[in-house]
Design brief:
alpha/beta, Rossmann fold, about 400 residues, globular, five-stranded parallel beta sheet
Length: about 400
């Protein structure tokens, strides 16, 4: 068991389910005790304050767990989904459902016949990392609602994995979406960032198989990308376009062109060894930006969620912007992160503000909130990472006087 003194533990599986499905007008039911969804809505889902509730708890009492009260549970969900005018129901597992062996698949079939809504279960246990929960949610939703398209839409893409726990507010993703559209590509769907004035997110999801290419911007989208390649033949690229070089490289991959050759940065940053801590795809995007846009010779990444799938060869993957280095690591342990941060040669750190408490020697610290850790604590902090805005944000802090 990990011990945290100064950091917060990362969100787990059913938090990822909530983040993945929030924008699709469904009802996510967390099969746990009374108040089980409270910590999701109040702490890890800042959007809950700005829109209708989409996550509720099963409200299980001790006697419900001991004696079973399935009919009441099913009736309550059917009633709530109708009252809230939800478009589907997702049942997310927790340690409670794992321990007592709840048949959530059976519940799903019963609810579907009673409500005439699409109903599915997401096989979370409550102990897995949040990207795994989000991945399972995306897969369950896709299997339920995606269908083979009549034709592919030329020069069109889907964005997979844009969940708030990894990418923050939807505004932070806008520079990515604008760069892709500005290069002549159309966006069929964005999982799961609703855009004003665009197609209903659930309808966009149904149309997603008509895209020619998928772009995966966090590890939460990798399993869905593999599924869409296996089922619909859609290839994909992986990468978060951080800064100018990241933007240009992603657009080159979309055009199926070779990446531009390395070039000296117009203004090298005064640092020699940077450490980036956070979600793997974004962190490797930051690494690419620091090396190419700012000329920092050594940049190491600490992935705080599993990154093995990011480097695993996959049939549908055309290319990736993530390049693993000899000193990159994967750990969410506080003591391990502190040791890496306080290495004598590290003079620049990019991480969630919570990590600054671990720093014991002088180094430039650039805040990059990871909502899966700090939740609404840093939700409104001003920061950027994508394309031009990301370059400007990093430049301002890299060249600021000490």
């Amino acid at each position: 068991m990990k011990v945290y003194h100064k950091l917060l533990p990362l969100a787990t599986g059913y938090f990822g389910v909530s983040s993945a499905l929030y924008a699709f007008d469904g009802l996510v039911v967390v099969y746990g005790p009374a108040g089980g969804a409270w910590h999701i809505n109040i702490e890890d889902e800042p959007r809950w304050y700005r829109g209708p509730a989409t996550v509720v708890g099963a409200g299980l009492l001790e006697m419900d767990v001991i004696l079973g009260n399935d009919s009441k549970f099913i009736s309550n969900i059917a009633e709530v989904s109708t009252q809230l005018d939800r478009r589907f129901v997702a049942l997310a597992g927790t340690p409670i459902s794992e321990i007592i062996g709840t048949d959530l698949r059976g519940f799903s079939r019963t609810l579907e016949s009673r409500t005439s809504l699409p109903v599915f279960m997401v096989p979370t246990a409550g102990s897995e990392p949040y990207p795994e929960g989000a991945s399972k949610a995306f897969l369950a939703l896709a299997r339920k609602l995606m269908h083979k398209p009549e034709r592919a839409v030329k020069n069109s893409v889907n964005i997979l994995g844009a969940i708030h726990l990894s990418t923050g507010k939807k505004e932070h993703m806008e520079p990515v979406l604008q760069a892709i559209e500005g290069a002549g590509f159309s966006l069929v769907s964005v999982f799961s960032v609703p855009r004003p004035g665009q197609t209903d997110p659930l309808e966009a999801l149904r149309n997603a198989p008509s895209a020619e290419l998928n772009v995966v911007v966090s590890t939460s989208g990798l399993a869905l990308a593999d599924y869409m390649y296996a089922t619909f033949g859609i290839p994909y690229v992986v990468g978060m376009p951080v800064g100018l070089r990241g933007r240009d490289d992603l657009l080159a991959l979309l055009r199926r062109e070779p990446l531009p050759p390395p070039s000296a940065p117009a203004r090298p940053a005064p640092f020699k060894h940077a450490l980036v801590i956070g979600e793997p795809v974004l962190s490797y995007g930051l690494k690419r930006c620091l090396r190419h846009d700012f000329g920092i010779s050594r940049v190491d990444v600490v992935s705080v969620t599993p990154d093995a799938a990011l480097f695993k060869p996959a049939g549908g993957r055309q290319a990736t912007l993530a390049e693993r280095g000899a000193f990159d690591a994967c750990t969410d342990g506080e003591h391990e992160a502190a040791a890496l941060m306080n290495a004598p040669s590290v003079d620049c750190i990019i991480a969630d503000p919570c990590y600054e408490a671990l720093l014991t020697h002088p180094a430039r610290f650039i805040p990059m909130p990871h909502i899966a850790m700090s939740a609404r604590l840093n939700w409104d902090l001003p920061y950027e990472y994508a394309a031009d805005k990301g370059y400007d944000y990093l430049a301002e802090r890299l060249f600021a006087s000490a």
